[in-house]
């Protein structure tokens, strides 16, 4: 029997396995985002939220300076909070984001401008104003110490 077709088939199988392995690695890197939660979109606005686990929390803190706005939610004793409802409105009162946090951190890509951020946790509202400038990172902390 001729060995050439068998060698070609073996070579093709190896190349296919290698290509599949590389594709899986690229996909894992794209979806992993270095430990960051998946980016979410609302209109033309992009945000991430999370930070429940240590890896995700560290990834969000490290990525924060590269996002225009970073928000952190804490309770009494600096306990981290999740399930905080966030509404961000522009100067005209239009809601540009309405979302629930999946952990104590939320990073938001907003255009430069002035915004009002309202965060609601267990029926208690906190509101902050923030002015974002091009290339400048801002942080907001919301703390519910009365809970």
Secondary-structure map:
Layout: H1 4-32, E1 40-42, E2 45-50, H2 54-63, E3 69-75, E4 85-89, E5 95-100, E6 105-109, E7 113-121, E8 124-132, E9 138-144
Parallel strand pairs: 3-9
Antiparallel strand pairs: 1-2, 2-6, 3-6, 4-5, 4-7, 7-8
Rg, Å, rounded: 22 Å
One letter per element, helices H and strands E, the order comes to HEEHEEEEEEE
Low-pLDDT windows of residues: 11-32
CATH architect. name of the largest domain: Sandwich
Taken from the alpha-carbon principal axes, the silhouette is globular
**Number of DSSP strands?**
9
Tally the helices. 2
Main sheet strand line-up: 1-2-6-3-9
**Terminal Cα span:** 80 Å
The CATH topology of the largest domain is: Immunoglobulin-like
CATH class of the largest domain: Mainly Beta
Largest sheet: 5 strands, mixed
Give the strand content. 35-45%
Domain count, please report it: 2
Task: Briefly characterize the structure.
Helix content is 27%, strand content 39%.
Essential attributes:
single chain; 147 residues; alpha+beta; Immunoglobulin-like; 2 domains; 4-stranded antiparallel beta sheet; 2 helices; globular
